[in-house]
Design brief:
Distance between the termini: 46 Å
CATH superfamily of the largest domain: Type I PLP-dependent aspartate aminotransferase-like (Major domain)
Order of helices and strands: HHEHHEHEHEHEHEEEHHHEEHEEEH
Strand order of the largest sheet: 2-8-7-6-5-3-4
Oligomer: single chain
CATH topology of the largest domain: Aspartate Aminotransferase, domain 2
Structural class: alpha/beta
Radius of gyration: 21 Å
Strand content: 5-15%
Helix content: 40-55%
Length: 392
């Protein structure tokens, strides 16, 4: 049999999607499964975005667009980066519109990485980062972070991980899976280390607008001394409840932008025309919808933290942003349930609750639950978690 791609064979599949698929299959079989596994807002897309899509259809805006994205959307994104994130050099000519933030990151990594390069990824990390790096032929370098440091990479750990082969560092704030956010002073401390090393930074800020007033959001791309090496990634999926529309965007240095745009022109031609019009309307008119969703997430955050806090043996830190609760279950593991992956299997098969194990995020001994779900699902889900923990 002919050998297939070693890079693809060596990359892992998304465990969050696999667990969600298993939960969906069980539901279809008539089993009462509560799924708190996927990171998807449970709200409808704002009406302004939906209407813009309808208008685009009626206007027959259904053909190829510029491969980088329509000019008016690139201008709106550049304006957003300048005004909201302090990235003063953001411009229509350096903004790439892609098919989701994941696609944006893949384009950027493909543009910069060669075999033998290293990409530093703090753990816990979003499940796709290491696989995406591996698919480019580069090597993921995992830097563990601890609860004592709020699961945020420290400057000394970053400095120790940097080598002449380091091509890029990936940062994610607010974080998936922990919900923690880097403060301005913490990002400036990391930037001070990076000033001494010639590498890029990918700042994944997809959860930027979902925060709870604990840590103000700050973009590392606004720090002048390293701004020419920072790629800022964002999109519409989380803030605007537009996961299925698949619109992400990135602002990149001109040399990186040119190569990333070349990749996109060859692999997708352009993002969907209709979705681009919807994204433009969301950026212009959906601020009130975003705030309404954020307030609901804030209420659910308090609710889920209280429910989990009442379960013995689980430790948590209240999330600064995003819509996940990151649970330390190391104290309850052992015997026939030696790790969090086994615990998640037990939860799903015996208690019909779908969560994601810490192994998916590079941190065994933890569970991630999404509170982007109905409050009844959160309540019953945490009751099922409590019953499972009590049975151990």
């Amino acid at each position: 049999m002919l050998e297939l791609s070693r890079r693809v064979a060596g990359a892992s599949e998304s465990q969050t999607l696999a667990i969600a698929a298993r939960a969906k299959s069980m539901k279809q079989a008539g089993i009462d499964v509560i799924s708190l596994s996927t990171g998807e807002p449970d709200f409808p897309t704002p009406q302004c975005a939906k209407q813009a899509a309808i208008d685009a259809l009626n206007e027959n805006f259904t053909h190829y667009t510029e491969s980088n994205g329509i000019p008016e959307l690139r201008r709106a994104v550049a304006e957003k980066f300048r005004n909201e994130n302090g990235i003063v050099t953001a411009d229509e000519s350096t903004v790439l519109i892609s098919c989701g933030a994941k696609h944006s990151i893949m384009n950027i990594l493909g543009a910069m990485c060669n075999p033998g390069d290293e990409v530093i990824i703090p753990a816990p990390y979003w499940v796709s980062y290491p696989a995406m790096v591996a698919l480019t032929g580069a090597t993921p370098v995992i830097v563990p972070a601890t609860p004592e440091h709020r699961f945020l990479m420290q400057p000394a750990a970053l400095a120790a991980a940097l080598t002449p082969r380091t091509k890029c560092v990936i940062l994610n704030s607010p974080s998936n899976p922990t919900g923690m956010m880097y403060s301005e002073s913490e990002l400036r401390a990391l930037a001070a280390v990076l000033e001494q090393h010639d590498c890029y930074v990918i700042s994944d800020e997809i959860y930027e607008k979902i925060h709870y007033g604990v840590v103000p959001h700050f973009s590392i791309g606004s720090i002048r001394d390293i701004a020419d090496r920072v790629i800022t990634v964002n999109g519409c999926s989380k803030a605007y409840a537009m996961t299925g529309w698949r619109i992400g965007f990135a602002n990149a240095p001109k040399n990186v932008f040119a190569q990333a745009a070349k990749i996109q022109s060859q692999d997708t031609s352009n993002p969907t025309s209709i979705a681009q019009r919807a994204a433009l309307a969301a950026l212009r008119f959906a601020a009130d919808d975003v705030e309404a969703m954020r307030r609901v997430f804030a209420r659910r955050r308090e609710m889920v933290c209280e429910l989990v806090g009442a379960i013995g043996g689980i430790r948590i830190l209240q999330p600064d942003g995003a819509f996940y609760i990151w649970m330390d279950v190391r104290d309850v593991l052992g015997g026939t349930v030696p790790d969090s992956a086994t615990l998640c299997s037990k939860l799903l098969e015996e208690h019909h609750l779908a969560l994601v194990p810490g192994e998916a995020f590079g941190a065994s001994g933890y569970l991630r639950a999404s509170f982007a779900a109905a409050e009844s699902d959160i309540t019953y889900g945490m009751a099922r978690l409590a019953a499972c923990i009590a049975s151990l």
